[in-house]
Amino acid sequence: MRYSSAGAGPKESVLDMLFTDQPLARRLEGADAWGGVECARAHARLYPDSGAASELVAGGYAIFAGVGSPLTRALGLGMSGPVGGAEVEQMEAFFQSRGAPATIEMCPLADESLLKLLGSRRYRVTEFSSVLIRPLNRRESFPPLNTGVRVRRASPTEVDLWVSTVAQSFYEEGVFPAAREFFSTLFHVANATCFLGWVDGEPAGGGAVAVHQGVAILFGTGTRPTFRKRGVQAALIYSRLALAAVSGCDLAMVTTPPGTVSQRNVERQGFRLVYTRSQILREP
Q1: Which of 131, 160, 195 corresponds to the end of one domain?
Q2: Is the pLDDT at 162 greater than 90, yes or no?
Q3: pLDDT of 169-191, one tens digit each?
Q4: pLDDT tens profile 41-50
Q5: Do 165 and 206 form a contact (C-beta atoms < 8 A)?
Q6: In the chain, N or C: fewer CB atoms in 10 Å?
Q7: Which structural domain, as residue segments, surrounds residue 155?
Q8: Residue 6 covered by a domain
Q9: How many domains, in total, are found in the chain?
Q10: 50: which DSSP letter?
């Protein structure tokens, strides 16, 4: 399939109807926490000696997939009500027992009790991330136009090709083993479908989408440096949105660093910012 880099996104009125409230945030954070748990499970299957694990705590999950892994963090905490000191201690013990710092991706709509507890326990903000959403419906069209970018699903036998293509998008100087493990884990996440974008017969980029309770989570997206600014990202976004729509999803979400090209790319395809997360780390 070939996808245009510019298409009709959801009507503005539909976006306006999605008020950023606690129920919406709970749904998004729940989907992302599920994705984190599935990443830990995939990592444990692929690398049994890694100690990858997850644990339910404070309405969310503490996730471990190796010290220093971007997958190692707590997600969805404080989204189902007040958080007590014992729950924070449970989360901290989970990470401490595995030699990793306690790291939390905190939604601004989490119960205020969580922020108060963290403020008294030597936590500091280390970075931010933008959470963006886009409504979907089965009737929406994603018109195939000839832009020179061909997108198709990556088959199970193309795991190495997908991993190499996406990893090269982030590591131009060479891909190290830990990065290959990370992207291989993403490829094997449950309910995930991975795509490759091709230009002139060469793999130009890749991306993945996982579906959970009507929410499509877009992740693992990258374009090789020599193929940037050629509509590869737009084509990969549209291919995943098309799959999500026919799968019955009514919402797509993606997380990006704030103010980046990645954020601009998804905004051009109809996504809008709903809130900014804080990554909070406990000081040693």
Answers
A1: 131
A2: yes
A3: 988 777 788 999 999 999 999 99
A4: 999 999 999 9
A5: yes
A6: C
A7: 12-17+134-273
A8: no
A9: 2
A10: G
